[in-house]
Amino acid sequence: MSFTSVGKLAPLPSGQAQNVRGKVVLNSYSRTRQASGSKSSAFNSGAISLGVHGKRKTTSQKCAGVSASLETGTKAGSPLDIIKNDLTFLKTRLDSDNRESAEVQKLQEKLAVLKEELDLAHEEVHDSENKVKKTLSELNQLEQVIGGLESVGTADVKTPSAAPSKASSGQKRGKGLHSSLEMEPGLKTFWYPVDFTSALEADILKPVELLGETWVLFRDESGTACCIRDECAHRACPLSLGTNVNGKIECPYHGWQYRGDGVCDAMPSTAQCKGVQVTALECREEDGLIYVWPSLDKKPDVGVPSELLAPPGDKFIIHSEISLEVPVEHGLLVENLLDLAHAPFTHTSTFARGWPVPDAVKFQLLTALGGNWEPYPIDMTFLPPVMTLSTIGLNQPGNIVRNVRAQDCEKHLHQLHVCIPSRKGHTRLLYRMSLDFLPWIRHLPGIKKVWRAMADQVLGEDLRLVLGQQERLLQGGDTWMNPVAYDKLAVRYRRWRNSLGDKDSQDQRLEVVSMSAGEMLKSDE
Ligand code: FES
Ligand SMILES: [Fe+2]
């Protein structure tokens, strides 16, 4: 049944309906509003009696109710009003159903779009996975190529990793070489230059630390250099804080006096104690250096190496003598001094300014042709236990000549470095510089300060590097992971040094070898 409002029909009394060709036509003038009231009032009319009590009516039930109302013509409220109300409810309900259906459709469309996007994302992830796999495969191939190149190279240097204590994860090439801050007992049976003659004036006391023990140098009544324990036998006061009284050290605490052989022969304000003494070391003085022998168990079986330490020939004059405290293990410093290859990289603002980096290819070529190539005219020597020597050939002060050996040069600069192992991780460096030309410059006012400033600057350039090495050693690093050809003199030192810690190694002497820069840098070892 459908309902149509037809305005052309004659007006009917309010609340009546007219059947027009099988259709019920509602009177457009009926006062439905007066009778309709609320939706619930419509269901409380006579039509409600046909409904299902206590439950919401279904659409068919509501339609049945409408028909019944029409047929019975119930007076309780206008049937037309009731019908109109029911129709209004039905329309609302249908509209609501339609809206819900439209929303469901929209959601379905959205779901379809999301599904498409998800499929697309899956494809992209799949593509990325393939790309990562391909890149990893290429990296693998690259590693193999690099590995091949390294195996034919001359300097097979491993790249340090980020973790300092495991810096070189590759195979160790420096087999048998190891550095540490420990001072081997075998270091004791050598003569050590501990100061310059010029530094030990008649009335002064010079404290000296050697291999972790404290000593004091002084001159006795005859002017002979002596070395005794820097610790009073009474209350352990450092004797170096005292004074030199007629060639004896007087303790500043209670005035006990000690001779050069360590015997205490004066004890003011008390009865003399017999047999009190402190340890004294064998002490020698030659060619401007004061030597001591630190071993108490073994007496010296060799003389002091003064001739070996002196500059060659009789033309050399000492221009500078300097002592410096360096907070670095002495072996690292010795190795640094025996390392010539670092100069054009490290000392670019001092003595090696403008030095070219030696060409390994040229070395190999000239060696193959039976020739020799000397990048710098420098000879270097290590002398056990802690001395290095270098002789530099010069044309003019500060200018280095090339492709000649030091001995072929007219002028020379000679350097002695003594790296005294004072205590663990600390060195006292003695530096002596001699020239065989310009003898008069040593008289120039302020020249000593100039040499000192220069030495400080050169040491400063090295110090940050060796300090860094020491730090790495303390973190478990290895300074001898990948030695190469130009490390050969330092390797020689380190082998000897390691042998001192080897109980089975009887011979701790080392043949003294001098090397030219060309011999040191060529890759034949
Ligand atoms: S501590 Fe040296 S005399 Fe007393
Ligand atoms: Fe250096």
UniProtKB/TrEMBL annotation:
Q: Where is the composition biased (Low complexity)?
A: 160-169
Q: Which Pfam families match?
A: PaO (PF08417), Rieske (PF00355)
State the SUPFAM superfamilies in the record. Bet v1-like, ISP domain
Where mainly found? plastid
For this protein, the record's InterPro entries field holds: ARHD_Rieske_2Fe_2S, Cholesterol_7-desaturase, PaO, Rieske_2Fe-2S, Rieske_2Fe-2S_sf
User: Which residues fall in a coiled-coil region?
Assistant: 97-145
Q: What is this protein called?
A: Rieske domain-containing protein
Q: Which organism is it from?
A: Cymbomonas tetramitiformis
Tell me the organism's taxonomic lineage.
Eukaryota, Viridiplantae, Chlorophyta, Pyramimonadophyceae, Pyramimonadales
